[in-house]
Amino acid sequence: MDYRFSSHVERLQSSAVRDILKLTQGQEIISFAGGLPAEELFPLEAISDAAQRVFAAGKGSLQYGLTEGYLPLREQLCGRMAAKGMQVEPDQMIMTTGSQQAIDLIVRVLMEPGDVVLVENPTYLASLQVFNLGGLRIVPVPSDKDGMIMADAERLMREHKPRMVYVVPTFGNPTGRVWSLDRRKGLLELCSRFGIPILEDDPYGEIKFNANDYFPTLFSLAGAADGGGVLYTSTFSKTVAPALRTGWAIGDRRVIQMLAKAKQAADLHSSTLDQQTLDQLLREFPLDEHIRRIGDAYGARLGQMENLLKSQNWPDVKWITPQGGMFLWLEFPEALDTQALLRSAVTKGVAFVPGAAFYAAAPQRHTARLNFTYTEGERMALGISRLAEALGEFTARL
Ligand code: PMP
In this structure, are strands 116-120 and 327-331 parallel, antiparallel, or unpaired? Predict the structure, then answer.
């Protein structure tokens, strides 16, 4: 059969890291590449106990469920949302297979091929893949350490008439950056003036290193019961475990109902076993304390990685210390192409993600994303020393 693939999938790029790792199969690689949480911190026993309680409830727990998601879990989650200043009812929430599916479904119900989405530059790679698959035109907005630059956002809104703005305002992926309050309010004001919905993606907001930090979500700042044009998505992937594949979206009821229709076509509903397990977990397990432990542990790991990097005395390598999340964003001198550096690095047994993949346009090829949550201690030190070796050899050859 001569398969003809759709023009949308033809446009999907395979991940730069996966390609490199394929070349090095069999080697032992220390990876700073994936966005993997620390396995040691997964609440394995509490999840297992919660699952046991679900099974003990009887055969009904194995039945099909609602497309919108398991109601008792949504009710509990509404309480957690309210504690963050987002007052929503269960019918304003849909449970999804990870927040990744929420992003995919929102694009399906709100966007037509050819529509423009504005994004930060750089931004989350797998969202760019969703936008490409949906045939969208992706227009990056120049961004600095405080978020999108509002004058540019306004100019591009006038020029391109976008149908959506996609942002990760708190501990973004890949940069770890936090939008300032002014920029958050600025974007809300612009989007309400131009009538453009905002997709606020917030998988990392709770993973903060200083317990007292408070970064209000755009949804909460909009101050409207229906989100005031903001669709918000988050996930249990970073706070409990990604294997449960449970995320959610909240917003205007009309949008949530459309998302449910689209989700029926996609998968009928997300795993009811996983949702019931999470519901049971939230009843017995002190999740907020657990999230505090994760934040403290990740803050310590970031500290270790920064110390290791500083001790290398690499000239002209810059980064901004993130206040939360899972990633450190490095800027090497401009002449250094991190895609080429990665080839050297994997031969030494260490991997990271070259930054270019995260740019919708004008890739900054001297950037790199390092995950600091998956490794620690001696293994992290060995990884950074391997990276230093690769960098030494690589720059000697330049
Ligand atoms: N958004 C961002 C910014 C992410 O980094 C991720 C996961 N790496 C997701 C969404 C999706 O996460 P999940 O589907 O596991 O909830």
Answer: unpaired
Q: How far apart are CA 145 and CA 331, in angstroms?
A: 13
DSSP string, 228-263: TTEEEEEESTTTT-GGG-EEEEE--HHHHHHHHHHH
44-284: what CATH class? alpha beta
H/E segment holding residue 93: strand 93-97
Residue spans per domain, the chain: 7-42+288-397, 44-284
pTM above 0.70, yes or no: yes
Q: What are phi and psi of 249, to 5 degrees?
A: -130, 145
Q: What is the pLDDT of residues 41-92, one digit of tens each?
A: 999 999 999 999 999 999 999 999 999 999 999 999 999 999 999 999 999 9
Query: Using CA atoms, how far apart are residues 302 and 81, in angstroms rounded to an integer?
Result: 28
147 C-beta closer than 6 A to ligand 1? no
Backbone angles phi, psi at 307, to 5 degrees: -60, -40
The residue ranges of DSSP E strands in 107-190, in sequence order, are 116-120, 137-141, 143-144, 147-148, 164-167
- Kindly state if the Cβ of 34 falls inside 6 Å of ligand 1: no
CA of 392 to the centre of ligand 1 (A): 33
The hierarchical CATH code for the domain 7-42+288-397 is 3.90.1150.10
